[in-house]
Write a structure and sequence with these properties.
Length: 280
């Protein structure tokens, strides 16, 4: 696949994903302030709103699947399926994924303490019941699109690291309606969008690094997304709403991303994410 085709397909994916989310699923809920459902609070909206909210979360993966089937056919879908179940990524990759989240989360806790915000570590145990649903509502519902479809096409044009940063911007924009939707963690905990965007840009660079280290395994992205989402949910609900912390919470992931940019020299030819032949 040439870079022009890859870029065109990535743009179509972003337009489709953001368009459906903003105009059909999440946008109307945010515009009319319709409550949905919270996994850490007591918010519970009408069934139709909860349905739209959940379906909207699957838009990235569904868009990635549909466009892969359109342009690569059954062979492309089979390739994507194999990447989803590519769980034998090596202990170093698992350790790196967990290590990044642990280091960043501990850094956020220390940062919060320095800013006068107390954090209760027992919250990680108290919220374990939400861990299993989070692998579906987040990792599985998104990663077939972000890392499964878009990352490979963007890195064909920009290389893995810049592709990760560009993807992070669209990933953050896709979340924007959640900041105005009662019941979501973004709305209920007072998260600010700009720090959130910076966090996701840095995080997306880490995704790109892990993705490349495991030969484009979508499972790697699902696993990393899963543990990050759980850790961030606990942090959002437990760190309080300190304005200073809300503005500075993005620092750990961005610092890790900068270190990756400084020391990682990716070999793009070793990352087999796209088909070698132009789809018929």
């Amino acid at each position: 696949m040439d870079s022009r085709t890859a870029l065109r397909q990535a743009v179509i994916f972003f337009v489709l994903t953001l368009g459906l989310s903003f105009l059909v699923f999440w946008g109307p809920l945010a515009l009319f302030q319709v409550p949905t459902i919270s996994f850490v609070g007591s918010t519970m909206g009408p069934v139709w709103a909860i349905t739209l909210f959940i379906l909207g979360g699957f838009v990235p993966s569904l868009a990635g699947l549909c466009l892969t089937g359109l342009w690569e056919g059954r062979a492309g879908l089979r390739r994507m399926g194999r990447r989803v179940i590519q769980v034998n990524i090596g202990w170093r990759a698992y350790l790196a994924a967990v290590g990044v989240v642990v280091i960043a989360t501990l850094s956020q806790i220390i940062l919060g303490n320095l800013l006068g915000t107390h954090f209760n570590l027992s919250l990680f145990g108290q919220q374990l019941s939400s861990l299993l649903p989070l692998i579906i509502l987040g990792p599985l519902s998104e990663e077939l699109g972000w890392r499964g479809f878009a990352q490979g096409r963007l890195q064909k044009v920009f290389g893995p690291l810049y592709a990760g940063a560009v993807l992070g911007i669209f990933w953050a924009l896709w979340h924007l309606p959640l900041f105005y939707m009662p019941g979501t963690s973004q709305h209920e905990t007072g998260v600010l969008f700009l720090p959130f965007l910076l966090t996701l840009v840095g995080l997306s660079v880490v995704f790109a690094w892990l993705h490349a280290q495991t030969d484009g395994s979508i499972w790697t992205a699902i696993f990393f997304h899963w543990i990050y989402t759980y850790a961030s949910q606990v942090m959002f609900t437990g760190m309080g709403q300190s304005p200073a912390y809300n503005w500075l919470s993005w620092l750990p992931y961005l610092v890790i991303a900068v270190l990756i940019v400084m020391f990682w020299k990716p070999n793009t030819q070793s990352v087999r994410i796209l088909p070698t032949q132009h789809p018929v």
